[in-house]
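Module 6 notes. Inverse folding takes a fixed backbone as the condition and produces residue identities as the prediction. Think of it as a translation problem where the source language is geometry and the target language is the twenty amino acids. Below is one complete input and output pair. Work through it position by position during the lab.
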C-alpha cells in the first residue's frame, strides 16, 4: 500500500478554521492539526513522525490508523513481561473512535484497554517504513515515554498473524497470566486449545480454567469409573463472544447446570472438557 506522502498543508500556521483542501471541509486532519501546539514528545523526529501520520488522516475510516502522543500517566497497571523492554499496561482513555463535535474532542473506545508498551531503541529511525514494519503484526496506537528511563515506547496491540486482526485467540492469550490450574499439563492443554480459537463466535468450544468457587449447589450424583460425578450450577455461564466495551467475554446461561467429574487420576487432562460440557 503506497500511500502518497502527506502534504504539508500551507495553512497549518494560519487559521485552522479553514477547510481541508483535499476534503473541502473541516476533516480529521484539521482536528489533529489544531492540537499540534498542545503536545510534544520532546523529540523532534517523533513529533514529526506523529504529525505526518495525523495530517494524512482525512476520512473517518482512516482514523483507526492514526497515531498519537500518549503521556505516560495515561497508563496504569504497568507490568513487565518476559521480553526485555516490553510491558503490558492499561490505557485509561482507550483508542480514538471519531471526532465529537459537541465536546470538540475525540470520542474514544475501549477505556482501560490492555496494550503492550515496547521500547523504541533508536527514536531517530522512526519513519513510515518503520511504522509499516510494526503494523504487520501489531495494531499501533501511538508513542509514549517512560519519564524515569526516558525511553520512548510504542503503544501496541498484538494482532493475530492468521486473521490479521485482534481475534479471540489474542483475547484468550492476554489472559494467560491471570490464571493457572496449578498443573502444567492442564494449563498447556487449555492454552493450546484457546489459541486455536480464531472465530468470532463458537468460542464455547474452548475450555477455560474455572475456579471451584464459580460453582453453586454442588451435588453428588454417582460414582463413575473416572471418578465421582457431581451436578452444579456454573455462576458465570459459558463464553459467547468478546465484548469490546467491557473488555471481557459476554457469557450465556448464567447458573447453567453442569456436570463435574472429580477425577480419580488427576493427571487426566479431560477435566476441563467435562466441566465445559453441559
Ligand atoms: Zn481532509
Ligand atoms: Zn486469529
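Target side of the pair, the amino acids:
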Amino acid at each position: 500500500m503506497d500511500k502518497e506522502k502527506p502534504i504539508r498543508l500551507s495553512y497549518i500556521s494560519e487559521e485552522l478554521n479553514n477547510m481541508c483542501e483535499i476534503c473541502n471541509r473541516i476533516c480529521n486532519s484539521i482536528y489533529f492539526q489544531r492540537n499540534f501546539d498542545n503536545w510534544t514528545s520532546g523529540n523532534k523526529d517523533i513529533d514529526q513522525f506523529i504529525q505526518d501520520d495525523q495530517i494524512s488522516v482525512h476520512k473517518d475510516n482512516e482514523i483507526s490508523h492514526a497515531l498519537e502522543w500518549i503521556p505516560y500517566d495515561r497508563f496504569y497497571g504497568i507490568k513487565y513481561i518476559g521480553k526485555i523492554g516490553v510491558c503490558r499496561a492499561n490505557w485509561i482513555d482507550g483508542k480514538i473512535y471519531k471526532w465529537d463535535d459537541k465536546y470538540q474532542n475525540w470520542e474514544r473506545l475501549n477505556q482501560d484497554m490492555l496494550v503492550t508498551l515496547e521500547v523504541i531503541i533508536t527514536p531517530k529511525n522512526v519513519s513510515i517504513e518503520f511504522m509499516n514494519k510494526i503494523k504487520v503484526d501489531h495494531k499501533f496506537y501511538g508513542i509514549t515515554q517512560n519519564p524515569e528511563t526516558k525511553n520512548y515506547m510504542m503503544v501496541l496491540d498484538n494482532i493475530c498473524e492468521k486473521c490479521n486482526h485482534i481475534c479471540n485467540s489474542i483475547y484468550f492469550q492476554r489472559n494467560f497470566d491471570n490464571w493457572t490450574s496449578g498443573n502444567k499439563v492442564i494449563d498447556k492443554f487449555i492454552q493450546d486449545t484457546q489459541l486455536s480459537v480464531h472465530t468470532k463466535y463458537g468460542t464455547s468450544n474452548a475450555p477455560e480454567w474455572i475456579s471451584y468457587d464459580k460453582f453453586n449447589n454442588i451435588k453428588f450424583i454417582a460414582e463413575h469409573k473416572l471418578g465421582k460425578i457431581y451436578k452444579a450450577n456454573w455462576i458465570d455461564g459459558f463464553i459467547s463472544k468478546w465484548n469490546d466495551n467491557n473488555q471481557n467475554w459476554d457469557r450465556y446461561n448464567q447458573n447453567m447446570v453442569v456436570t463435574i467429574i472429580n477425577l480419580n487420576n488427576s493427571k487426566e487432562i479431560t477435566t476441563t472438557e467435562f466441566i465445559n460440557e453441559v
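Reference fact for the lab report: Residues 168-276 form one domain.
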